[in-house]
Every structure is written in structure tokens, then in C-alpha cells.
């Protein structure tokens, strides 16, 4: 069955280190997204991509970067991790035919990141 | 992108019908209304989407009045497993090259179902 996976599921790192969170989907979806979820804020969009070599900033993109070299993967990099980036990170994908909001988004299981 | 307002929490008992209302006063003509469900330690899951009137699937119904400034997610005969956070999203389909790029999930409604 097609799916979307994230790795690692849990990560502890130190302030200032570079961290990369992986996201892989097997649906061949055009659109991919990264969100962070914090208590009291719901889900907030970090970056998104419409397709290969396309990336766009979301609501809370400072301190994060993404690159899309193929359809299946959208890794999220924290260039210099900060304690404020301690959060749960979700990756999602959608087919892309109807646009971001009309498409159903399929979410991964999440990565819990702790920055000490 | 129209922002949404939902109750922070709701309680119900097993077997009851639950209605969660979402306000979106600034909804635009092209906007759709979408609801997601999230269980603890999981990513959100699509429940239902609509544009106007009523939409029903095997999980829920979505009622949208004529002015579209609100919508109501209806869960028939809830069970303990329906305890989750429910998010209402409003927005249109983005085309490639759009400069908008904001998807607003909001804080959602925590539904707790009691035995």
C-alpha cells in the first residue's frame, strides 16, 4: 500500500547542530508539506512544494529549509537548531490536481524533536 | 485565506450525535471547507470536505448554510474512539505560482467522548 513515512520518529539534539528530518511518500503526489505542531498553536505550515525543484515558504519558515530533488522526498533541515524549534513535526502530501486546499492531505506519523 | 473559529473543547457521551460548528465569516467565493481529525500521537486525517449545502460520507456529515459563513460537522452516534481533535480549514485551491501559501489549521476542537 502507498504510504508516507517520516524518520526519525524521535530525535534529541543540541542547540546549534544541524538536523535533517526525512519525509518519504509512495503515492507519487505532486504536493508535499511540512508542519510543526505546538501546544496552543495547532498545526503551522513551515514549507511546501508543488513538485520537483519547487519550494515555498509557509507561515513559520525562519530557521528551516527544504529541497525537492525527486517526487518522493522532501527533507526538512534545521540549519542551526534552537530550543524554540522543539516541537512535533508532520509531513504531508497531496495529489495536487485540485490545489492545496481542495486536495486531501495525507499526513505522516510525525517526528518529535527535542533541542536541548 | 479565511481564518476559522471553533470551540476549544466539547464533551459528549457514547451513542450521542455531536455537532461541531466552525465560523468563517470572511470565506471567499472560491473557498472550500475541509475538516480533519487528529488522534494523539498521530497526524491529522481527512474527514470531509464541502462547498455548500450538505455533504455526507461514511464517517460524518457537513452542513453549510446558504451564506457559508459557518459550517457544522456532525458525527452520528459517537464512540470512545471518536475522542480526538477536529480541525476546520477554509481555503481555495492554490495554483502553481501562487504567493499565498498559508494553510491555517487553527487550534481545533478537542472532542472527548465519555462512556
Topology (elements, then pairings):
The complex is a heterodimer of chains A (116) and B (115).
Chain A (H helix, E strand, L loop, with lengths): L3 E4 L2 E4 L5 E7 L5 E8 L3 E8 L6 E2 L6 E3 L9 E3 L8 E8 L11 E2 L3 E5 L1
Parallel strand pairs in A: 2-11
Antiparallel strand pairs in A: 1-3, 3-8, 4-5, 4-9, 5-6, 7-8, 9-10, 9-11
Chain B lengths: L8 E5 L4 E6 L8 E7 L6 E6 L2 E4 L4 E4 L5 E6 L8 E8 L17 E6 L1
Parallel strand pairs in B: 1-9
Antiparallel strand pairs in B: 2-7, 3-4, 3-8, 5-6, 6-7, 8-9
Characterise the protein shown here:
The complex is a heterodimer of chains A (116) and B (115). Chain A has no helices and eleven strands. Chain A is mainly beta and 116 residues long. In chain A, strands 2, 4, 5, 6, 9, 10 and 11 form a seven-stranded mixed sheet that branches. A four-stranded antiparallel sheet of chain A has the order 1-3-8-7, with no helix packed on it. The model of chain A has no long low-confidence stretch (mean pLDDT 91).
Amino acid at each position: 500500500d502507498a504510504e508516507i513515512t517520516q524518520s526519525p520518529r524521535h530525535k534529541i539534539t543540541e542547540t546549534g547542530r544541524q538536523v535533517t528530518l526525512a519525509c518519504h511518500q509512495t503515492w507519487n503526489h505532486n504536493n508535499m508539506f511540512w508542519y510543526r505542531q505546538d501546544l496552543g498553536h495547532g498545526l503551522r505550515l513551515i514549507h511546501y512544494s508543488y513538485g520537483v525543484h519547487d519550494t515555498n515558504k509557509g507561515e513559520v519558515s525562519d530557521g528551516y529549509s527544504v529541497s525537492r530533488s525527486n517526487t518522493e522526498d522532501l527533507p526538512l533541515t534545521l540549519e542551526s537548531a534552537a530550543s524554540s524549534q522543539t516541537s512535533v513535526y508532520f509531513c504531508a502530501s497531496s495529489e495536487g490536481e485540485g490545489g492545496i486546499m481542495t486536495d486531501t492531505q495525507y499526513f505522516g506519523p510525525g517526528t518529535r524533536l527535542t533541542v536541548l | 485565506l479565511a481564518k476559522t473559529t471553533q470551540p476549544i473543547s466539547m464533551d459528549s457521551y457514547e451513542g450521542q450525535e455531536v455537532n461541531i460548528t466552525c465560523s468563517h465569516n470572511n470565506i471567499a467565493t472560491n473557498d472550500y471547507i475541509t475538516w480533519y481529525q487528529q488522534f494523539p500521537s498521530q497526524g491529522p486525517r481527512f474527514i470531509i470536505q464541502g462547498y455548500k449545502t450538505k455533504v455526507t460520507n461514511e464517517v460524518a456529515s457537513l452542513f453549510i448554510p446558504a451564506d457559508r459563513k459557518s459550517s457544522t460537522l456532525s458525527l452520528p452516534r459517537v464512540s470512545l474512539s471518536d475522542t480526538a481533535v477536529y480541525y476546520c480549514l477554509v481555503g481555495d485551491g492554490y495554483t502553481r505560482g501562487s504567493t499565498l501559501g498559508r494553510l491555517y489549521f487553527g487550534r481545533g476542537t478537542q472532542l472527548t467522548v465519555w462512556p
